[in-house]
Amino acid sequence: MKLAVLTGGGDAPGLNAVIRGVVRKATENGDEVIGFLDGWRGVMENEFMELDVEGCRGLLTRGGTVLGTTRINPFMRDDGRDACRRTLEANGVDALIAIGGEGTLSCAHEMYKLGFPVLGVPKTIDNDIGSTEMTFGFATAVDIATEAIGRLHTTAESHDRVMVVEVMGRHVGHIATWAGLAGGASLTLIPEHPFDIAEVADALQRRHKRKFASIVVVAEGAKPVPGTLDIPEDSFDEFGHIKLGGIGELVAREITDRTGFETRTTVLGYVQRGGEPSAFDRVLATWYGVEAASMAADKAFGQMVAYQCGSMTRVDLGEAVAGLKYVNPDLYKVASTFMA
Ligand code: F6P
Predict the structure, then answer these.
(1) How far apart are CA 232 and CA 223, in angstroms?
(2) Which of 245, 244, 183 has the alpha carbon at shortest distance from 215?
(3) What average pLDDT does the structure give for the chain?
(4) Within this chain, do residues 91 and 161 fall inside the same structural domain, yes or no?
(5) Catalytic residues
(6) In a designed cystine with 252, which of 36, 63, 121, 263 is the match (CB 3.0 to 4.6 A)?
(7) Which residues, judged by CB distance below 6 Å to any ligand atom, belong to the binding site of ligand 1?
């Protein structure tokens, strides 16, 4: 049997470990593996590399993806689907493993409905894919953000400042909630709970009567309660994805204006996605990869590997991409217990 893998969407620590896991298990099964370059672009344009156990040496710990990644998909080109079909036939590919987030997996689901032998592996540092409890890359991002918050505590205390830290999380606040809790944030603002800037300022003022310095963690997709604060109009990239970044700076400005406290902003940005996966993500990503190769051998097309209750399982791709996974309100309540 011949397997192919692709990595699509934004990168995440652990992508290479998934690829390595697929190759190792497929080789054990007597299967061959190729990797398409730059996500669906490589499938459409028939660009790929051979993948074998020897070529995967060192991949467990390496950040990024050796296959490259783009957000291009076959539905963006008139002949995209036919081109994919030609490539898979020409190379005798029996199963295509799409490793990606919401966009890549939705595309994989559509391709499956058109008869392509596709299955999915969920990837995103945002951890917002449905049907799976944890995507690889998330834990690493939380570690990085937590370390940054820890460092900001000491400088905040030295200068008696408010530090606003903007972390990734386009639609959901998993990174903000976990890193806020782990790092001891004073306030955490997430997309799931629109914030009232007047309440944020009041909370900080109350806190500063008894303590000094505060850390406010803001997910990049956090939004104010409608009508409470003017924010710039949303803009979108060429793939229709909302372009974010800037909410941290806005919140910091408002805090200064409303409280008089000296406030500084740190936008963590892409450091949350770059570099080596954590130990947890190395294990999780490897497990995802090995299970994906087994699913391919079983011809479990139209399905996605999912991590549930400490085990890997198989779920319907359509269900997995039907809705985002939001922060558990109980966990946010726990975080709220420590706020301000
Ligand atoms: O990987 C998800 C994510 O990190 C989002 O939190 C963020 O909005 C987005 O990727 C930005 O990625 P890019 O600039 O590559 O589109």
Answers:
(1) 11
(2) 183
(3) 96
(4) no
(5) 126
(6) 263
(7) 10, 124-126, 168-170, 220, 241, 244, 273
Distance 311 CA to ligand 1 centre (A): 27
11: closest CA among 137, 198, 189, 197? 137
Kindly give the distance from the C-alpha atom of residue 37 to the centroid of ligand 1, in angstroms, as a whole number.
Answer: 20
User: Is residue 108 in some structural domain?
Assistant: yes
Q: List pLDDT tens digits, range 243-270.
A: 776 999 999 999 999 999 999 999 999 9
Last residue of a domain, one of 242, 274, 306: 274
Q: How many domains does the chain have?
A: 2
Tell me if 184 is assigned to some domain: yes
Domain carrying residue 242:
139-274
Residue 136's CB: how many other CB atoms inside 10 A?
33
Report d(CA 285, CA 295) in Å as an integer: 15
pLDDT for position 260 = 96
The pLDDT of residue 49 is 98
What band does 212 get if pLDDT is binned at 50, 70 and 90?
A: confident
pLDDT tens track for 154-200: 999 999 999 999 999 999 999 999 999 999 999 999 999 999 999 99
Two tokens at 318?
């359509």
- Ligand 1: atom nearest CA of 71 is 16
Is residue 238 scored above 90 in pLDDT?
A: no
Find the 68 Cα to ligand 1 centroid distance in Å.
Answer: 15
Q: Which atom of ligand 1 is nearest to the CA of 244?
A: 8
- Residue 336 is assigned to a structural domain of this protein: no
CATH code where residue 69 lies:
3.40.50.450
Gap between the Cα atoms of 288 and 135, Å rounded: 9
> What is the CA 76 to chain-centroid distance, rounded?
23
Query: Is position 265 within any domain?
Result: yes
Asked if residue 218 and residue 125 are part of one domain, the reply reads: no
